[in-house]
Amino acid sequence: MKDLLFSGAPQLLRLFDRLTQRKWRDTDLPFVHLIREDPQQEPFRGLLDRLRHAGRSKSPYAEVILGPGDVQPTPGIPVVKNVFDRAVTDLGTHGRQSYRLRFPRYILSSWICDLKPAPEVTDCDQLVDEIGRRLRDRLFGRRASSAQAGPGNTIQDVAAGLPWFLLIIPVAWTWWRNLAIRYFLSAPRFIARQRPSEIHAGSFVQLAFALSQMPDGPRKEQILNDLLVSSFLEDLRQGYRGLAGRLRMGRRHPTLFLAGEGAGAEAAYKALDAITQIRNGFRSRRPHLPVWDPLLIITTLPPAVQAIRAHPPTDAGIVHEEWLHRLRRDGSRRTWSLPFRLPSSVETGVYRTDLHRVGLPPCRLPLVMITFFAVLVFGLGGVSTFNIRHCQAFMSMPRADVHREALRGDRYQCIGFITDPADIDTRLVGPDEGFARITEMNRKVKNEPEWYEVVYFSMLESGDHDGYLFAREELRGIAIAQQKLFREGTPVYIHLVNSGDLMEHSARAAQEIVEMAEKNRRLIAALGFGLSKRQTAHAVVRLGRIGLSTLGTSTSADAMSDLPGYRQVGPNNLRIARAAVEYAVGELESRFVRIYYSGNTEDIYSENLAMDARVEFSGRGIEVTEILPYHDTTPSAHESAGDLGEQACAAKTGEFVFYAGRSEEFSEFLGGMQRACRNTSPRVLAADDITRWVLNGDYRTYPGVELDYISFASSIAFGKNCTKDPASFYTSYAEVFPKGSACKDAKDGQAAIAYDAMLVLQQGIEDAKGKDTGAEIRSALFETLGQIRGGKKITGVTGDLDYGDDRFPGAPKDKAVLILHAAPTGPCLAFISGSFFRKEKRVMCS
Q1: Which H or E run includes 406?
Q2: Computed over its alpha carbons, how large is the radius of gyration of the chain?
Q3: Fewer CB atoms inside 10 A, N or C side of the chain?
Q4: How do 296-299 and 31-36 pair as beta strands?
Q5: Which residues contact 743 (CB under 8 A, 6 or more apart)?
Q6: Which of 348-357, 424-433, 495-504, 538-547 has the lowest mean pLDDT?
Q7: pLDDT beyond 50 at 192
Q8: 662-to-469, 691, 794 alpha-carbon distances in Å
Q9: Mapping DSSP to helix (H, G, I), strand (E, B) and coil, where does residue 824 land?
Q10: What is the distance between the alpha carbons of residues 213 and 424, in angstroms, rounded to a whole number?
Q11: Contacting residues for 241 by C-beta, under 8 A, at least 6 apart
């Protein structure tokens, strides 16, 4: 107690009790700086004694005092690890006897820091498998005798904090252990929020792989620094979250006592700065409030910002109230330091009585028994909701072929084989929607003596409404074609596989298909694939290696057109660029063009289309005056889409803009044009990705911009009410889906594109059955799809499908490309390029 005998000590102790005691409404906690005038003072000792003798109100605490020799710099590993390793050890040791704080996220993040890839393994998929194997070994203690067990040697087991039923699984049950790791170690939401933009890992194992491949340097060190701090604070939040957290941890906040000298002080300052950045981060629901965590920090270091004035301890209560007021007022410039200057020692007899009057912290009421039965009753009601959100039915075992991943906001998505309507967005599973029709037809197919199985591999869940409409229309087109094939003697069972929003989890979904194909020889092909992204191309390659034929619907990147076993219904980017040139020369009669595209390195569509367009425009005498990327997730592309929109206003008279970017940034691009160009905006020809954006009517927000756009297919091409449909596709559409207007609903053409993909599959199966080779259908189909050319070409709804182009064997030769004009009354057909049932190229917009 003698270390607290100074003027203002009682007020400081009362503030300390107030800060360590948790209220029913969580409040923000400061960094309390105790600046000593007398270096011999040890205020930590008195405060630590107070926590140790708090009885049932004992709270977790950690004492981290780092000397110059306690911090050993290691390349690629942030120095804050020295601080938080000790904090994790102490907080898991000191506190209530009934429940210890657990830090599973931090321990796994610490494991990532030390992870190095095996030099002998060079294949991407093998590396991911190797990391997963190492993680399984580490979690279940196969190497417990020789491996370190976590940060510091005092943490007994790296698996601390995992669900208890994972730890009792017998060693021999390897399949169950692998399933448990997949199920419980998906990348948490906190990692998704803190993940740097260049890392696109979906699961925890993929995140570990991505970080292990980054070279050591300041960038990697900063990423690991953010990951460690985020993990540490998230573990504390989870331990204290909700009613269960209050019952486990009582009414006391965890306290970190932090001090250091030399290199130790520098590490402590970096830890405080990292926590400050996390707390001041963006909060989606309440952006004006900081990100809460339950950690109270007491330090003897002065504030890093010298301008912050230290206060006398006698004013502790008032100063704290003023600090809370400033915290809510300052926004992202919040200051978390609350410094007090401790006076030198005074006469002992004057203040000892005052300290005794403060007393010990108040005890916690024993609420566990009172709330136990209430939690039990309400918990039974919540099991159903919990299981559905975790991709499993009520009271069922976890499924091996579907995984829970974070979606935009606080939503989740189920990755893998979708068999239950509860697994995906309910808007896709209505009584007249494609999901229901496919499920109904699948039951009929199973009653046939012989049938084939195909996977629809695409984005069944999305973070926005446009993604939902995309999936809905493709499912409808597949359902219509499935019924046609069944009537014509080619029964096909359709498996639905969700690869996630924007195809982000294609690798995991493809692995599930590979595992099914190894056991199911009826599985012969996969179709869909959604977007032209690097992850999509990797999935196609992975499926092609095991002999599965693949059919793309809306993919168009040139790089995909040459993949083994791959065919697509839409044109490739080179064909799109040539159609744009035809339109520019014949209709726009312009000699100058500006090209803008996405700089996202994971997007193999946008830059490829821009480069193809530059070559084709230049080859036809149209001068490319500017070609620039806008930033998406690539730091090297410095300008935003809005900046490039403003820059496009420098276009000459008669010069037009070719937009090869994505629809997500198109509004920003046109907004920049509208701000800078006023009423002199150049004409814009946009690529096919903005089709749904136009159909939603978003273009009417920019009345000063004359807009044309490219489309692979559209019901608009078949006239009013689709009366010019030679294949009667839209008649079938209206019969199978009678609600609404078939011609109006299918304006984006996705249903027709998916329907044509099924026609290609049908002809490939028929040709494979006719071969007298004895080979099974899967391997024969791999060959027969490539023979759909010349006299065997297919006349589809979206145009002729002739795979006779030797340069790009996966893309149909001279495939039809439509160019539409965004008129005030709605889109209208302006130009047709390629092989289509309508032979005229120029179409008068009505």
Answers
A1: strand 402-406
A2: 32
A3: C
A4: parallel
A5: 715, 718, 720, 721, 722, 730
A6: 348-357
A7: no
A8: 17, 10, 30
A9: coil
A10: 33
A11: none
Q: Residue 434 is encoded by which pair of tokens?
A: 């494609």
Give the integer Cα–Cα distance in Å for 300 and 782.
Answer: 71
Q: Retrieve residue 483's tokens.
A: 């019924």
DSSP 664: G
Token pair 């959100």: residue? 389
Return the H-helix or E-strand segment holding 527. Answer: strand 523-528
Q: What is the pLDDT of residue 92?
A: 75
Q: What band does 81 get if pLDDT is binned at 50, 70 and 90?
A: confident
Q: Are 452 and 490 in contact (CB under 8 A)?
A: yes
571, 505, 515, 562: which is closest to 539 by C-alpha? Answer: 505
Query: What's residue 310's pLDDT?
Result: 85
The per-residue pLDDT for range 669-680, each reduced to its tens digit, is 999 998 898 788
Helix (H, G, I), strand (E, B) or coil at 297: strand
Contact 6, 343 (CB under 8 A): yes
Nearest to 458 by CA among 567, 401, 532: 532
| Cα angle for residues 445, 450, 453 (degrees, 5° grid) | 60
**Widest distance between CA atoms in the chain:** 107
Eight-state DSSP code of residue 203: B
In Å, how far are 325, 328, 748 from 334, measured between CA atoms?
A: 11, 8, 48
Direct distance between the N- and C-terminal alpha carbons of the chain, in angstroms, rounded to an integer: 90
Sign of CA dihedral 192, 194, 198, 201: negative
Q: Which two tokens stand for residue 206?
A: 């993929």
State the DSSP string of 614-656. HHHHHHTT-EEEEEEEEPSS-TT--S-HHHHHHHGGGPPTT-E
Q: What is the dihedral of CA 105, 107, 113, 119, to 10 degrees?
A: -100
3-state helix, strand, coil in the chain (%, to 5): 45, 15, 40
Amino acid at 788: I
- Give the DSSP H or E segment for 542: helix 534-545
Task: Please state the pTM of the whole predicted model.
Answer: 0.58
The DSSP 8-state label assigned to residue 155 in this structure reads -
| Beta pairing partners, 403 | 415
What value does the mean pLDDT take over residues 445-459? Answer: 93
Predicted confidence (pLDDT) per residue in 193-250, tens digit: 444 444 544 556 667 677 777 777 888 888 888 888 888 888 888 877 765 555 555 5
* Sheet containing 707-711: order of strands: 623-630, 592-598, 656-659, 683-686, 707-711, 817-823, 826-833
> Which pairing describes strands 492-498 and 452-458: parallel, antiparallel, or unpaired?
parallel
Q: Residues 6 or more apart from 54 whose CB is under 8 A from it?
A: 252, 360, 361
pLDDT at 215: 79
In sequence order, the 6+-apart residues with CB closer than 8 A to the CB of 739 are: 432
Q: What confidence tier does 392 reach under pLDDT thresholds 50, 70, 90? A: low
Give the model confidence (pLDDT) of 116-141 as tens digits.
Answer: 665 655 555 565 566 556 655 655 55
Q: Helices (H) and strands (E) in the chain — how many of each?
A: 28, 21
Phi then psi for 837, rounded to 5 degrees? -65, -25
Quick one: which H or E segment has residue 818?
A: strand 817-823
Per-residue pLDDT for 551 more than 60?
yes
Give DSSP secondary structure letters for 365-404: P--HHHHHHHHHHHHHHHHHHHHHHTTS-TT-PPPTTEEE
Q: Which two tokens stand for residue 205?
A: 């194992």
